[in-house]
Please model this.
Amino acid sequence: MEGHITCVICPVGCKVSVRKEGVQYTIEGNRCARGEEYARNELMMPKRILTTSIGVSNGTLPLVSVKTPRPIDRARIKEIMKEIKNLSIAAPVAVGDTVVEDIDGEGTPLLATRAVSCNGGREKTTLPT
Ligand code: SF4
Model:
């Protein structure tokens, strides 16, 4: 088996060729070790950072953008999105608020990436730790 993967780790976008012989993979065309790791992960268990939005009740905006702080198993994203579709959070929301503690069963949280204040105009602030 042989194929190509474009490494998306940096803007160079190396075209990485992957050849499988038995249980052995040969990875070539990457300019650095990160490309090899990326190609290996794409073959074994592709992961993606999940970015989406969820509903906000009593907020100045109807939705708030959210994302996982690290990539999660790509194969589970569809199922996780179905769960997220039914979620909503009450305003106020601050950047970095944890919307879901563990979205993938692996301990990955879902975090708010923007602030939404209450309809009354009060903004939630988060103090630095
Ligand atoms: S292999 Fe290295 S240099 Fe090439 S795109 Fe990936 S990260 Fe960038």
Remarks:
- The domain at 51-112 is CATH 3.10.530.10 (CPE0013-like fold).
